Amino acid sequence: MGGESDGGETEARVNLKDIANELGISQTAVSFAINDKPGVSIQTKRRVREAAARMGWKPVYAAQALGSSRTMTVGFAPARSMDAFQTEGFMLHFMAGIHASLSRSGYGLLFRPCATLDEELDTYRDWARRKRVDGVVLVDLLSNDPRPRLLHNLGLPAVLAGGPDSDNYLPSLSIDDSRTMTTIMNHLSSRGHARIAYLSGDENLDYSRARVSSFKEFVRRKNLGEPKVEFTDFIPDKAASLTLRLSSGDNPYTAFIYENEIMAAASLRVMLENRMTPNNIAASDSAYMSLPAMVSFEDSFICQSTYPSITSVHRDAGLYGTKVANLLLKIFRGEQVGGNRRILTPKLVIRESTARPVR
Q: Which class in CATH covers the domain with range 177-314?
């Protein structure tokens, strides 16, 4: 039995018979040991597993799925830190939406967070070679992103949350970030803010570039001066430090837009700490009144729970995940799917952080 790499080269696959011949035992004994079934000794199980690892044997999951050609599994292997998944509400709800849709059709979600882009690419190659998943959900499209082409060449069905993919390798569903940025800017401008800074995340992300472009276009169209964009790499402390620096001086920025709620909340906390003294709680009122306006591009309980509460963009991340998963299921069923579509209309939830006009 052979496997095909993404470069088109055929490589031999080690099977259970090869392991049996190597150890001089029956193929049945090898199968029992691999699957941890009774009938063979602990010593034999150890010998089989050591030999399997040494010979490079890996399971073909499709062959294990009751004789079906499908694994009934969808892969999700984004290159993000575990800290990001634990703190960003949007991604957690997005994954829940994917799982809800897949489970109704009998599919499972294989979550494999990766530390780097190279690790993510290697994961897709491994999944395709071992027939580990039936398809993949892709997020966080990059400039000159190699992932859509690789998945296409591997023959691994995939859908993109975001985009669209400029080379049209993958169908995509995206949210209109450009229009959302315009909504935010109209709101801040109507409150009298002319000095507005955008503290973005990663300049290589497709959605960040779309937001930056819309932000700069609005600033220039309204003659608000030179657009101020800073990239934080999603580091809350960096966002807070930038907020402190840019909101001080002779010509401070009076409003800030943050890529997510974690950066917004961290900046709010630092700003309050900088304005209040431990021995003068009465100064709190003036501290709140002197804060710049703050808007988060992500909404969660954090934005609702802070004081002042943070104006934010609400998107139904669960529904988004469900729609992305449904698109992939259509591909599995052999249905014709559209190329690239924008779905959902984010809503700006106005809270205390932008309720008052600029002073």
A: alpha beta
Specify whether the CB–CB gap between 79 and 114 falls below 8 A.
yes
Is the Cα torsion angle 260, 261, 266, 269 positive or negative in sign?
positive
Give domain limits for the chain: 2-58, 73-175+318-342, 177-314
What is d(CA 300, CA 293) in angstroms, rounded to the nearest whole number?
18
The vertex-183 CA angle with 178 and 186, nearest 5°, equals 125
Q: Which of 104, 98, 215, 109 is nearest to 161 (CA)?
A: 98
Query: Is the domain defined by 2-58 classed in CATH 1.20.58.2190?
Result: no
State the CB neighbour count (10 A cutoff) for residue 298: 23
| Token pair 């450009």: residue | 178
Same fold, 2-58 and 177-314: no
84-134 pLDDT, tens digit per residue, is 665 667 888 999 999 999 998 889 999 999 999 999 999 999 999 999 999
CATH architecture of the domain covering 73-175+318-342: 3-Layer(aba) Sandwich (3.40)
Helix intervals (H) in the chain: 16-23, 27-34, 42-55, 61-64, 82-87, 89-104, 117-130, 147-154, 177-190, 206-221, 236-246, 261-275, 284-289, 301-305, 317-332
Tell me the pTM. Answer: 0.75
> What's the pLDDT tens digit per position in 129-183?
999 999 999 999 998 999 999 999 999 999 999 888 888 899 999 888 888 999 9
